[in-house]
Amino acid sequence: MSLCSIKNAHIKVLSFMRSLRTKATDITPKVREKVKARDKNKCVYCGFGYAINLAHIWVNRSHGGLGIEQNLVCLCLECHTKLDNGKEIHAKPIREHCERYLKAHYKIDVEKMRYKKYENIGD
Predict the structure, then answer these.
(1) Residue 37 has pLDDT above 60, yes or no
(2) Domain range holding 19?
(3) CATH code (residue 26)
(4) Is the model's pLDDT at 71 over the cut of 80?
(5) Could you tell me if 38 and 45 are in contact, meaning their C-beta atoms sit under 8 angstroms apart?
């Protein structure tokens, strides 16, 4: 086997693995609808009803956070921006409020909200 074919096989495996993670962390339309209904399509922090986004709370998508109801809340654009890109002084109260909100709705197991590379193969 040549070095080139080994490299191509490695790239295909990485591409396959990346697509599994992307699929696992996606928010399906069904989950999106359930979260919006649970949160009455309003920001769970400030109550604003426009420019609503779904925000990962326990585990960010970039860190393998699954797109499941227990990891998502509705936030307005301003609150979501403060949570993800703001100073800690602004992000902390939003995150704490969202965590309490989700704990009131679900039994939280953060480890079950994280994509596990080798456990999800074949799902």
Answers:
(1) yes
(2) 3-113
(3) 1.10.30
(4) yes
(5) no
Q: 24 lies in a domain?
A: yes
pLDDT for 116: 82
Under 8 Å between Cβ of 55 and 98: yes
Confidence at residue 118, expressed as pLDDT on a 0 to 100 scale: 52
Give the residue with greater pLDDT, 86 vs 84.
84
Burial 104-119 (b: 16+ CB within 10 A, else e): eeeeeeeeebbbeeee
- How far is 51 from 30, CA to CA, in rounded Å? 20
| pTM attached to this predicted model | 0.77
Three-state SS sequence of the chain: CCHHHHHHHHHHHHHHHHHHHHHHHCECHHHHHHHHHHCCCCCCCCCCCCCEEEEECCCCHHHCECECHHHEEEEEHHHHHHHHHCCHHHHHHHHHHHHHHHHHHCCCCHHHHECCCCCCCCC
Asked whether residue 123 is assigned to any structural domain, the reply reads: no
- Token pair 């922090």 is found at 45
On whether residue 118 sits in a domain, the answer given is: no
